[in-house]
Every structure is written in C-alpha cells, then in structure tokens.
TrEMBL record, chains A, B:
4-amino-2-methyl-5-(diphosphooxymethyl)pyrimidine binds at Q43, L44, R45, R46, K47, N75, S113, K142. Condenses 4-methyl-5-(beta-hydroxyethyl)thiazole monophosphate (THZ-P) and 2-methyl-4-amino-5-hydroxymethyl pyrimidine pyrophosphate (HMP-PP) to form thiamine monophosphate (TMP). The gene is thiE. Its cofactor is Mg(2+). Binds 1 Mg(2+) ion per subunit. This is Thiamine-phosphate synthase.
Length: 216, 216
C-alpha cells in the first residue's frame, strides 16, 4: 500500500486550510475542488465545531485526501486526528504542546505554529516535523494573529532544519515573495477556500511553485 | 494503590462541573473548596479554552481530585482526558459518539448526555457507563439547553440499568425532588461554582443526599 506520508515534505507545498463556514457540504465541495486543482495537503481547522461534526468532516476529508494522495492534517484536536486516521496534527502556541501530542500520536506528523524565530527554534527542539510561520501578511481569517512578516519568515527558513510552511494572508500575488523568502509550503485559507473556483486557485498556487526556484 | 474508580457509582452523587470563567486561579480555588466540602466528582468543562489552557487546568484538577479521592471527568476532549489521566469522559449529543470515545479510551468511564428517554436508551445500548439527564430545570449556564423536566428524569431513572446523573438548574431547594425522581447523582455548575462558599454548597448537597431515600 502506498503511504500518503511517503515524500510528505513535498506535500506541504499547496497546503489548504478549511474555514469555519456552517455549510459543510459547500466546505467539502471546496476541499474536493482544491484537491482536483492540485492541493497537496488539507488541514481540518474548525474552531467552532463540537467533536461530532468535526469527526464527520474529518472522515470525509480523509476519504478525499486518500483518493488524491494528499496529506490530511487536523488542527488542535488529537482525538479527532486519531479517530479519522489523519497523517498529522497541527498545533498552535495555545494548543496541546508538541511533546504531549507526540505521546498520544507517536506516528503522526506534528506541525507547530511559530510567530518568531524563538518559537520556531523551540518547535524544532520539541520535535516538530514542520513549522508553520506567520502571519506573514495581515489576515482576515485570524483577526488576532500577530503579523510576523516576510523578514521573520526568511530568518526562520534560513536557520530551520525542518520544513517551513508560511501562513497568513497569502494570495497568488504575494506567493512569489513568500517562496523567495524560503518557504517550503504555502498555507492558504481564503485564497483557496473562498475563491470563485477553489480548483483554479489551487492549480495557480501549484504551478507558481513549480515555476519557482524552490522546486529545483 | 487505591483506584479512585473503585466504587465509582457512589462518586456520582455530588458531581460539580467547572464554569467558563477566565480567572482559572479562582476556578481552581472553587474546585478545591467544593472537594473539601464533599464533592465526589469534578467535571472539567471548558468550551472556550484551547487545548493548552485546558491541559493545564486538567492536570491541576487531577491532582486535587486524587488527593480528595474524587472522580475527575473531562467534557468532550478525549485527548485532554488521556493526557491528564482522567477517570472518565463526558460527551454530549454533538460530541464524539460514545463508541468512538471507547476506541480511544477503552479503560475510562464514559458518560453521555441525554435529553429524552430515546437518547438515554441509545446511550446505554452504545455502552455508556452513566447517563447525564437534563436539563431538568431551565438553566442560565446552557442557554440553549432543552428542558427535559422531572418527568423525563423519572422515566429514565425507572428504566435505565446504568446510573443516572441529573443536570440543569439544580440547586439545594430543587435537589430533593430530583433525588425523589430517582437520580443517582446531582450534576451542578453554578449552585456550587458560583456559590458564596463552594465548600458549604457542596457540603449541603452531600448531606441532603445522605438524608434522602436514595442513600439507603
Ligand atoms: Ni474546542
């Protein structure tokens, strides 16, 4: 059986994150379209859902990502990640710490959000598999997100020995400078999920990456 | 070593549930006082917390309940329950279903909320260890809670072969009719946590139970 996690680092490139819309049918349609367009990873992030609805969404996304051979990562909730056979878990600075996540899920990828070089260093030291750096640009999705900026991204990408996924306000116009700063992946919420065509949007990010220096 | 879960059914009697206050120091003080007064179980229920703060609270409550030989139960999040060595997990109808919780936590007690006799029957059939029935009275803690009423409680208590914990708007004045309806335990949020003295409040519930027919 092909393990989706084979070559997982190359699957951080077009990393689409779900939004909090109530219409889960529409959300799953957007996820499916994003995968058809070339999204390489889907993160289930649902801050308002109870465990039941999140579990059902996760099982659907696991099915879709398995078909597409894309990574499926769950934000915050290790229990949902375990029950839906996720490839990984992504935690922020206020979620369960990386080391404790590892206790519950020794075989999964663990991503940790970092806003500063210090947080990125700590994540690597604590055994994170990749680090999510941001917000690189101001964002509407997380109104309270600290704006880390491109310079912080460049500093972390230059010193980190684990892959660096950039997040926060990334759209097609801004993606080139994010890649030029050394990002291994582009984490995107609204520029894919709220695009008129999530499929075209994901495809645009994928081809932009292929044509960049990062893919060489 | 004495297992706190020995004789766990008798520890559902004074079942105090945490509220969502921001001041966690004050919350832990209330928990400690409730235990000193005779609370037999503490449920960590924090709907607004991220995993990190909830984990820290859980570790503190585990320490306090271990000293008091009281049950410690986590609402909704199985991951936090596992990491904090909880005795059990409590799930509502929109949380992870009982059977899936059991997969992750085969050795823990599982409580399931039920608003109707049908939901209570389903919980028992799905392997719940106890059922939480309510809201027996209108409540301010859960504004959206369906009011099940004393009659539903009586019907469930009369047919259920697992313990029945009543919840929703229970205070000292109303507790006697809840016990008379057949409840095995009194789940209480504000009447203990927001009492001028959580210790005196817990003690009052405990002695009310001891003097009731239920304790014979
Ligand atoms: Ni939550």
């Amino acid at each position: 059986m092909i393990d989706i996690r084979d070559d997982w680092k190359s699957k951080l490139v077009v990393y689409a994150i779900t939004d909090d819309r109530e219409d889960t049918k529409s959300l799953l349609a957007a996820v499916e379209a994003a995968l058809a367009g070339g999204a390489t990873a889907i993160q289930l992030r649902r801050k308002r859902d109870d465990g039941g609805p999140m579990l059902r969404l996760g099982l659907e996304i696991r099915r879709l990502t398995r078909e597409a051979r894309a990574l499926y990562i769950v934000n915050d909730r290790v229990d949902i990640a375990l029950l839906t056979e996720a490839d990984g878990i992504h935690v922020g600075q206020t979620d369960i710490p990386c080391k404790r996540v590892r206790e519950l899920a020794p075989d999964k990828l663990i991503g940790v959000s970092a806003r500063t070089t210090a947080e990125a260093f700590e994540a690597e030291r604590d055994g994170a598999d990749y680090v999510g750096v941001g917000a690189v640009f101001p964002t509407t999705t997380k109104a309270d997100a600290i704006h880390s900026g491109i310079d912080t991204l460049r500093a972390i990408a230059g010193t980190s020995s684990i892959p660096v996924v950039a997040i926060g306000g990334i759209d097609i116009a801004r993606a080139p400078q994010v890649l030029a700063a050394g990002a291994d992946g582009l984490a995107v919420v609204s520029a894919i999920m709220s695009a008129p065509s999530p499929r075209d949007a994901a495809r645009a990010f994928a081809s932009l990456y292929r044509e960049s220096d990062r893919s060489r």
